[in-house]
Backbone:
């Protein structure tokens, strides 16, 4: 392939009169501009040649297409690529050239047909697929819409309700389901794919198979009145579930236009809104997240050294509490044999019981069969000593946050585990150098920080010290991939990346409340901003025991910028420890539904008098925008410190850590991306002003001050950062 072009298509014309056009753009045959323009010229040639009767489109190396080349959106957003005429791809090429052609086309789908890939196949006159192929329109997840005709053709092929489900959830279906839905005409083994597709294409020419233009089909569409009701319901749901995003509603507009005014009007509307959504801020954020998420596994100096991950055949976990049992669940779900160690029979039984309950909940929900449950549970063995650790390849310690206990465990592990065994700790805050102080195995000590519940939450913070070997990081990245986690590799310090960013967020909330802001209004503003819940509801969920233990670490290590509020310790003294005790910042009923508690005032007033804070009339009347700024700009400030210190090597890693570890809304692109969308100058000036009024908690760090004074982007690489990695 020419190195200046991004992908191509090749066409071969067989003696049977079928032209096979192959999409070639590794690794997923995405539809770059080069691929699309090549496809067009191949098509024009095929249509003009007398020796071509029909056309088959397929993808190279077992993948049809992963859709439009997502980096193309970035080029359009940055202005480095001019967008073609509105509707050029979907109307001019796919509809008027391909679908309306005098020669039929058949899509031969192997592996996957996603987004623009599936849309291209739907413009063909039939689709043949291999078993298990993934078929979907995941565009909304990227902030764009199925703009290559998908809003028009999918409802006509599978019906309006199923099309809405597939488009709004972005979830793909397998080929077998696609077949029963009418999206796929035949499912055949891989070896028969091309021959079947060629024959099918010729059968269409000979009228032995129907010549169907999906865009003209009407048999699967409901009557107009019913369609309008279905769309009205979908709009209501969308507004509720994605209140801060416009593109799903714009997508529904395109769907509705097609149903009400016909497919041509629908395609035109789709082209119009498709081109508009590209410049939405939410789209920019989501596309940034797509590439940043895939970028976390690219660690300079580690993953560029040609190291091959070693095979991890068996894992041991120490501690069967909430974290340990969650980690064990995640591992056995991905077929890793696991030994769970506890200190006595009672704790061991409880730990195994937790793993069982995690899996049983899947059986109850129907996502796991009873046989699979038994098979998965059989991978878990309990142990009360270290004898069975002699052949494990990795240990993950997940006991309580007690330094001397962890030091003892690591010293024991060194004695019992084989020399190559990775020694990981699930600590969320403690310095790993301290944990490994009593060993000579520093090069294989690493942090594997999971988030609770570990079998559900997607983030894995991989913490490396100055001594951790690159091989160990590569191994853990591989385990992370196998257990379907998004890993972020960070440096060693108190709180690592996620908890360091988290801490100022809850602290800022306590600070505001002590000065008169309403905690329930803060929670409401933060939820509207897009966080899954506000800081007070979150403290209740995590529990005050954990909140106090974490705060203690931060007060010890970063005293100059820790705000010491007594609200939580005062409530804890009164045996209100959050949701688990049914009382915290909120009161909880039997169904764990939270409602505000008028008694909370009492604790706030007492904490206020202890800290000597006064009610500040300005802070009592904060607008929602001010609440967001005062709670999240301190987070940006800490993220800047983490970045400047080299704890994170890329700003984009902090974006992913914030999204998957804190629940920061993905459509805002992550903490640093969001900060840059506001501007470093403004953030710096606000923090600087608050620090003068309210103290050092808000004081901008040197990195933010430097970039803010110039208005420079916070996410630009740190030259010669004082790397601690
Ligand atoms: C002409 C346009 C201008 C006019 C505007 C018109 C209006 C807009 C109309 C748009 C209509 C069509 C839109 C689309 O098709 S958007 C794309 C839809 N597709 C997807 O969302 C799929 C995304 N990809 C995935 O889900 C997975 O990558 C996949 C399941 C395909 C494979 O997963 P796997 O785990 O095996 O691998 P990775 O995810 O790590 O990916 C491997 C590498 O491939 C890169 N990749 C994947 N998909 C794309 C893509 N569509 N475009 C570009 N690059 C893609 C991914 O980044 C990885 O790269 P690296 O190895 O470098 O990290």
Residues:
């Amino acid at each position: 392939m020419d190195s200046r072009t991004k992908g191509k298509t090749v066409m071969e014309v067989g003696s049977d009169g079928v032209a096979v056009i192959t999409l070639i753009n590794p690794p997923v045959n995405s539809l770059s501009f080069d691929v699309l323009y090549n496809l067009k010229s191949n098509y024009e040639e095929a249509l003009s040649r007398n020796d071509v009767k029909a056309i088959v489109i397929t993808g190279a190396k077992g993948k049809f297409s992963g859709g439009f080349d997502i980096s193309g959106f970035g080029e359009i957003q940055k202005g480095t690529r001019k967008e073609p005429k509105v509707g050029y791809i979907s109307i001019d090429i796919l509809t008027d050239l391909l679908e309306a052609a005098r020669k039929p086309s058949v899509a031969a789908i192997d592996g996957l047909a996603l987004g623009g890939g599936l849309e291209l196949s739907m413009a063909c006159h039939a689709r043949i697929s291999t078993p298990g192929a993934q078929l979907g329109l995941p565009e909304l997840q990227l902030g764009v819409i199925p703009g290559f005709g998908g809003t028009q053709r999918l409802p006509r092929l599978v019906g309006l309700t199923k099309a809405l489900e597939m488009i709004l959830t972005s979830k793909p279906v397998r080929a077998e389901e696609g077949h029963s839905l009418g999206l796929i005409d035949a499912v055949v083994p891989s070896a028969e794919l091309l021959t079947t597709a060629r024959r099918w294409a010729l059968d269409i020419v000979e009228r032995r198979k129907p010549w169907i233009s999906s865009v003209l089909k009407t048999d699967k569409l409901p009557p107009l009145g019913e369609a309008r009701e279905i769309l009205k319901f979908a709009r209501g749901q969308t507004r509720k579930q994605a209140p801060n995003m416009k593109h799903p509603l714009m997508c529904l507009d395109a769907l509705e236009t097609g149903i009400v005014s016909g497919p041509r009007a629908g395609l035109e509307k789709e082209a119009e809104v498709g081109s508009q959504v590209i410049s939405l801020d939410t789209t920019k954020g989501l596309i940034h997240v797509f590439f940043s998420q895939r970028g976390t596994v690219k660690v300079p100096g580690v993953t560029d050294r040609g190291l091959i991950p070693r095979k991890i055949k068996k894992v041991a976990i120490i501690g069967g509490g909430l974290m340990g049992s969650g980690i064990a669940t995640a591992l056995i779900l991905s077929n890793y044999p696991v030994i769970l160690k506890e200190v006595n029979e009672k704790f061991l039984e409880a730990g195994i019981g937790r793993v069982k309950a995690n899996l049983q909940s899947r059986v109850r929900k129907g996502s796991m069969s009873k046989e699979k449950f038994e098979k998965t549970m059989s991978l878990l063995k309990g142990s009360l000593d270290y004898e069975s650790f002699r052949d494990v390849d990795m240990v993950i310690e997940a006991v309580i946050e007690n330094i001397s206990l962890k030091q003892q465990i690591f010293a024991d592990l060194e004695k019992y585990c084989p020399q190559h065994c990775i020694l990981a700790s699930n600590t969320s805050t403690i310095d790993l150098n301290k944990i490994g102080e009593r060993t000579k195995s520093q090069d294989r000590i690493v942090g594997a920080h999971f988030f609770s519940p570990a079998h559900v939450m997607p983030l894995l913070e991989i913490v490396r010290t100055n001594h951790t070997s690159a091989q160990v990081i590569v191994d853990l990245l591989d385990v992370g991939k196998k257990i379907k986690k998004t890993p972020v590799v960070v440096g060693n310090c108190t709180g690592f990346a996620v908890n360091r960013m988290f801490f100022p967020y809850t602290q800022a909330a306590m600070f505001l409340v002590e000065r008169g802001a309403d905690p329930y209004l803060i929670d409401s503003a933060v939820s509207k901003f897009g966080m899954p819940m506000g800081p007070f509801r979150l403290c209740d969920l995590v529990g005050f025991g954990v909140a106090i233990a974490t705060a203690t670490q931060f007060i010890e290590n970063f005293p100059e910028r820790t705000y010491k509020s007594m609200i939580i310790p005062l409530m804890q003294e009164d045996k209100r420890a959050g949701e688990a005790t049914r009382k915290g910042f909120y009161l909880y009923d039997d169904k764990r539904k939270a409602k505000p508690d008028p008694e909370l005032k009492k604790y706030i007033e007492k904490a206020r008098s202890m800290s000597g804070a006064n009610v500040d009339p300005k802070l009592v009347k904060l607008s929602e925008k001010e609440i967001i700024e005062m709670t999240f700009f301190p987070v940006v400030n800490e993220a800047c410190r983490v970045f400047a210190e080299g704890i994170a090597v890329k700003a984009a890693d902090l974006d992913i850590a914030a999204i998957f570890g804190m629940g920061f809304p993905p459509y805002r692109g992550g903490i640093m991306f969001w900060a840059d969308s506001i501007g470093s100058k403004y953030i710096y000036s606000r923090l600087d002003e608050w620090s003068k009024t309210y103290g050092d908690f808000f004081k901008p760090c040197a990195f933010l001050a430097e970039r803010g004074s110039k208005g420079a982007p916070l996410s630009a690489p740190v030259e010669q950062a004082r790397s601690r990695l």
